[in-house]
Design goal:
The complex is a heterodimer of chains A (343) and B (110).
Chain A: H1 2-12, H2 19-41, H3 46-55, H4 64-67, H5 70-73, H6 79-87, H7 94-106, H8 108-120, H9 123-133, H10 141-170, H11 174-177, H12 185-215, H13 217-226, H14 232-255, H15 260-269, H16 272-306, H17 316-342
Helix pairs in contact in A: 1-2, 2-3, 7-15, 8-10, 8-14, 9-10, 9-14, 12-14, 12-15, 13-14, 16-17
Chain B: H1 4-7, H2 11-19, E1 24-25, H3 26-37, H4 45-57, E2 61-67, E3 73-79, H5 81-105
Antiparallel strand pairs in B: 1-3, 2-3
Classes of the chains: A mainly alpha (343), B alpha+beta (110).
């Protein structure tokens, strides 16, 4: 029976997965399943039955006109042709998929190091400027800020260089990461097996990372609520913020190097409608982000200036970040639910 | 063996005539067509699927979800009133087509 399903997958693989085509595929699969079952009941061997069913399948192009999906199957003349042609991309080959997975695996530590550097980049600036300001370090406010700013720029520069080197290695597989391909049953099977093999490690690191992320706010809350004596009541909350960054970065450092197989599987098995819905979901989050962060900045500045509350107004950022995570997750879940209902 | 081209125009008629005796699903229809045709014609699955979808689009049959005798969920097709009228017209057309073609081939020995 798997041979029949794989045969149908292959026949339909070059076409976009419109609801009508999926319906046709499901019903044809039912017919083939029934035919196979009755051939087996007649005493044929599995090979004979599969061979007979595939011989009796016919020609997919015959189905096109009655479903009104001629443009879906073979681009017709005119404007519809361009749209249909844009949706049909060459099938992904196994060599391509293996090369892409290999490149992702090779660059996994570089990419996560870059992300960690970006997250950690403001920590020295925060720490040294408040240490100088409160006199805990004999630096003076400006010298501390300068060293911190310099460290921030260096870390961002190193991070950007790492990202460049990663993208140079994955560049040959650009059409895969941009979803300009059609799925291929062989590749789908291979990549799902690959992902399954690495799934336990990914789940373990995800658990560890989430624990770190949740606990990351603990020192900050403890310092902010429990420490009252100057100058520590100014210095320790900032140290708490830095510890949040360190623990978030540590979580990312644990998780990111173990997600490559899962990411490759997600990218190579979903295309067409599912891929576009996913993009749409990302763009909704993107639109929210475009308004959200400037608004948060405005709140921060207004509160700080008008209320002269520079000591506490930084709280806008951790709270805002957690809230944004919740919004993005909520939008994602809503989209997934809607998609599950429509499909 | 009859070629697919020769019989193409009559697959709709075959499907409708089978549906006269009650609703049926795609594989059962294919099996009954092959059984009735004997060794002369084996219908391809895509041909049958196209025919039922064409009839459904023309509202000559209607479809509904059902369960096959083997317990699998299958789409069942049922003939509509328009389908009965269409079948009658098609049968009349076939009879006159047959008469006309027979007049031409009278005396021709293969």
């Amino acid at each position: 029976m798997n041979v029949i399903a794989a045969y149908l997958d292959t026949m339909f693989s070059t076409y976009p997965q419109t609801p009508r085509l999926l319906e046709a595929k499901a019903e044809l699969h039912g017919m083939m399943e029934d035919a196979y079952t009755s051939l087996i009941a007649e005493g044929r061997t599995e090979n004979e039955a599969v061979g007979q069913v595939i011989r009796d399948f016919g020609n997919l192009e015959e189905v096109a006109p009655v479903l009104g999906i001629t443009a879906d199957i073979a681009p017709a003349a005119g404007g519809g042709a361009d749209a249909a042609a844009a949706e049909r991309h060459p099938v992904v080959t196994l060599e391509e998929a293996q090369g892409y997975a290999e490149a992702k695996k090779r660059t996994r530590y570089r990419l996560s190091a870059a992300v960690m550097l970006f997250v950690l980049s403001p920590s020295l600036l925060l720490l040294l400027s408040v240490a100088g300001e409160t006199g805990l370090l004999p630096l003076g406010e400006n010298a501390g800020s300068f060293i911190g700013l310099f460290a921030l720029l260096v870390m961002i520069a190193v991070g950007v260089l790492l990202v460049f080197s990663v993208s140079r290695e994955t560049a040959p597989y650009k059409r895969l990461s941009e979803r300009r391909f059609s799925t291929n049953p062989t590749v789908t099977q291979w990549v799902e097996a690959l992902s399954a093999k690495h799934e336990p490690a990914r789940i373990r690191s995800l658990q560890l990372a989430v624990t770190l992320w949740i606990l990351s706010a603990a020192p900050l809350l403890a310092f902010a609520l429990l420490v009252n004596e100057p100058p520590y009541d100014r210095f320790l909350p900032v140290l708490g913020v830095v510890l949040v960054l360190v623990m978030v970065a540590a979580g990312l450092g644990v998780l990111l190097p173990r997600t490559w197989a899962h990411t490759v599987a997600e990218e190579l098995t979903r295309t067409g409608a599912a891929g576009r819905a996913d993009d749409a979901e990302h763009s909704i989050v993107g639109i929210i982000a475009a308004f959200y962060w400037p608004l948060l900045t405005a709140i921060f500045l207004a509160w700080s200036f008008i209320g002269n509350a520079w000591g506490v107004s930084w709280m806008v950022w951790p709270i805002g970040a957690v809230l944004f995570g919740a919004i993005a997750g909520g939008v994602g879940a809503l989209e997934a639910y809607r998609r599950a209902r429509t499909s | 063996m009859i070629s697919a081209d020769a019989i193409r125009g009559y697959v709709d008629l075959m499907v409708l005539s089978l549906l006269r005796s009650g609703p049926s699903y795609a594989y059962e229809l294919a099996q009954r067509i092959t059984a009735t045709s004997g060794e002369d014609y084996a219908i391809k699955q895509t041909t049958l699927y196209s025919a039922v979808k064409r009839l459904e689009a023309a509202e000559l049959v209607s479809s509904s979800a059902g369960v096959s005798p083997t317990g699998k969920p299958r789409t069942y097709y049922r003939m509509t009133d328009a389908g009965h009228a269409y079948l009658d017209a098609k049968v009349a057309e076939w009879r006159s087509t047959k008469t006309v073609v027979d007049r031409f081939i009278e005396g021709v020995t293969p």
